[in-house]
Fold:
Amino acid sequence: RTMAAIMAASAKEMAEVPEVGGVIADSMALWSQQPENQALIQRLQAAGVQLEVTGEPPRAVSDRFAGLTFVLSGVFENYSREQLQELIQQHGGKITGSISKKLSYLVAGDNMGPAKREKATTLKVPIISENELLALLPVAE
Structure:
């Protein structure tokens, strides 16, 4: 929740963050170790730039997706990617950026890359549409 935590994190720790894969984690760790970037962060802090998340995280609406992990790929018809991420998280789910055997669902939008589809198929990860994701949600009473 802070820039200091990001700057101190190892590539392995960064890769555990939803939506951060190995390549991005390695790049972030390398970037944060460079003295010129550390100096940049210090200058930003000295200038009063807020580098911490404040406030409480969004509260869960339900636990329907508790224990489930999702990858969103492609362009979606009814919601933006950010809206779908928030929706999944509000129902207890987690978002990641990479396909693995631990993944619960790949939510496929239009123009999804063939590599993700192929890897999900190989690993037998269920591939669902935006509408199928929405159908998994509890019906409002």
In short: Strands lie at 69-73, 94-95, 105-108, 127-128. The chain is about 45% helix and 10% strand. The chain has two domains: 3-46, 69-135. The first helix runs from residue 3 to 8.
